[in-house]
Amino acid sequence: MYTIQLGKNTSLEQYKMAIRVLKAIGVLDDDTENYNPFELTEEDLLAISKSDEDIKEKRLTGNKEVHKEAKEICIK
User: Fold this and answer.
1) What's the rounded Cα separation, in Å, for the pair 14 and 20?
2) Distance between CA 64 and CA 72 in Å, rounded?
3) Each residue of 14-60: pLDDT tens digit?
4) pTM for the whole thing?
5) Which residues contact 19 (CB under 8 A, 6 or more apart)?
6) DSSP state of 30
7) Are 65 and 73 in contact (CB under 8 A)?
């Protein structure tokens, strides 16, 4: 399996056009056309919701604290 990287500013329509072309020349399977890289999964939505709640409840860890904990783990 290979990876084709598209430009950062590739729109959904450009992506779909590229998929159609690659499918037409036999590079991709039929099921690839229905894939939407911009669609969020249920897992993605849950993680975003949890992050939003953590921010609202100020359940955040500062950069210095993370570095301190990482250092302690590495020293063990």
Assistant:
1) 10
2) 12
3) 988 888 888 888 887 766 656 677 788 899 999 999 999 988 888 88
4) 0.40
5) 28, 32, 33, 35
6) G
7) no
